[in-house]
Amino acid sequence: MNANADAVKISDVVLRDGHQSLIATRMRTEDMLPICAKLDAIGFHSLEVWGGATFDACVRFLKEDPWERLQSLREALPNTPLQMLLRGQNLLGYRHYADDVVERFVARSADNGIDIFRVFDALNDLRNLETAMKAVKASGKHAQGTICYTVSPVHTLAMYVDQAKRLVDMGADSIAIKDMAGLLTPYATGELVAALVGAVDVPVHLHAHATSGLAALSQMKAVEAGCRYIDTCNSAFAGGTSHPSTEAMVAAFQGTPHDTGLDLVALKEIGDYFREVRKKYAAFESEYTREDVSVQIWQVPGGMMSNLANQMKEQNALGRIQDVFDEIPRVRADLGYPPLVTPTSQIVGTQAAMNVLTGERYKSITNEVKRYLLGGYGQPPAAVDEEIRRKAIGNEPVDEGRPADQLKPEMQRLAKEIGDLAENEEDVLTFAMFPDLGRDYLKNRRDGKLVPEAIPAPSSPSAGRPVAEGVPTEFVIDVHGESYEVQITGVGSGQGSKRRVYLTLDGMPEEVVFEAKDEFVKETKGGGGRASASEPGHVSTSMPGNIVEVLVAEGDSVKEGQAVLITEAMKMETEVQARVGGTVKAVHVAKGDRVTPGEVLIEIA
């Protein structure tokens, strides 16, 4: 590695953020390990290998143990520091965890191979970083305090400088600027970096997504302003919603005082390998991961764009996605201008989609928005819209303290709850991150039933291959001499000879059911059979989704406005309320059922 103090040091993100940004985090460990020796020989400052959606994708789709992935990469990369992204008190899940869970997760991550922890909070509420930062320092590892960059009336240079100073006071060994949406412009970057370098005595790192096409230029201005650490991605997984190309940035600084000293020929060989790997996952590519300067208008990160596109497709409303993009800035303003990064990107994006799909702003409010407005995620950067707050939570008190202070220790309870399905503490932590998903994974592992998802071919799929959720399979159908391009996306499990899918013809998705002729098949969940809602006492839902919990039983007395069901749509939970008071006469759904708008789910008389 170049010992020159002015040399640019590079962290390559191809093993985590690169494939998370472009192929939905689907790269398998078996495709990482063969190239590790060459990656290890380059001399990177670090390789980002873990965090973000790694856990979710490993457990949900790939049926891999994420801890075993980390162990394998540590063994295969003995000379390079390994780095992970950690969501502060959220860790890698979507809620705040008790301090003991955070402490044990950091300790086990360090023991399994992580050297550098990039710790951030979606709201830049630094109270949510305290426990994680202390745990990293206790493990003897590098604690990188992170500022989520965004643009709003309240996000000023002075605010960012103050946050950097406070992070250093908390023990940060370095400061990272996390530009998850690609909002930084070159001159804004130079100004921000110069201010931070002048304010703190620790190194400043820049992590910028290339979504708007400006990230490479921003990195150049950052280096001119004193930054010496940048995140890049191998060219095979660079550009678009990923990051500037490692090879391009290495070439840009060659022969200058900032020369990285990295070998372009060796980097090209690595790129050649990953280009072949990427072909394997072509079905997971999305048009929403390309370069798009509109991020400067909507401030929607690329991964959020592609996620929303899949969710709108599941709601049979892909044609209204532009309306959702227009609504996102309005919801963000209502909620006090949170930066759009997990989990706030999902919270804002899903609420915007529901506002559009229900035809009335905040007619239906997700439980996550309610939790946010109650202070459950921390302090918003600016004041929230009080009318929206009252509509969501009424007169309930808002918690102004550190959210985790309300949480009792959890590790002992979690270990008891998962029981002997957990073979070690790492398994308990996997269960903690994703309770239902983690339990299913651990149970199937015990029973020898772990089967990774099939990798669908982007075209000409073989017969019988399952359609990946949210990933279209393309066909060309000839009818009476006319050719039609058709995309089919699976949206629910098949049963017998029946399968529910979305069929997209000429860009318009329609939900259809394919069924074998002359064979009786019992109707799948959510497929109908329920009467249409026509009375005030008929409880229905405004969006397709799944039943998470039934809160009442036949014979119960309910009040008008009382929550009777919890549904999940677009990865967010929403309460379904009774429109009238009375007695529950019938319940037509159970946990796990698929439901669609207009069906009678509960009858109240």
Overview of this protein structure:
The structure is a single chain. The protein is of the alpha/beta class and 605 residues long. Helix content is 35%, strand content 17%. The protein has an eight-stranded parallel β-barrel with strand order 1-2-3-4-5-6-7-8, surrounded by six helices. Strands 9-10-11-12 form a four-stranded antiparallel beta sheet, with no helix packed on it. A four-stranded antiparallel beta sheet has the order 13-20-18-15, with no helix packed on it. A hairpin with an 8-residue loop joins strand 10 and strand 11. It is globular, with a radius of gyration of 25 Å. The termini are far apart. About 8% of the residues have low confidence. InterPro entries: Aldolase_TIM, Biotin_lipoyl, Carboxylase_cons_dom, OadA, PCB-like, PYR_CT, Single_hybrid_motif.
Topology:
Layout: E1 9-12, H1 14-23, H2 29-32, H3 36-40, E2 46-51, H4 54-62, H5 66-76, E3 82-86, H6 99-112, E4 116-119, H7 130-138, E5 142-148, H8 157-169, E6 174-179, H9 186-199, E7 204-208, H10 215-224, E8 229-232, H11 246-253, H12 264-280, H13 295-298, H14 302-314, H15 321-334, H16 344-358, H17 367-373, H18 386-393, H19 411-418, H20 425-433, H21 435-446, E9 473-479, E10 482-490, E11 499-505, E12 508-514, E13 538-539, E14 545-550, E15 557-558, E16 563-569, E17 572-577, E18 582-587, E19 594-595, E20 602-604
Parallel strand pairs: 1-2, 1-8, 2-3, 3-4, 4-5, 5-6, 6-7, 7-8
Antiparallel strand pairs: 9-10, 10-11, 11-12, 13-20, 14-16, 14-19, 15-18, 16-17, 18-20
Helix pairs in contact: 6-7, 6-20, 8-9, 9-10, 15-16, 19-20, 20-21
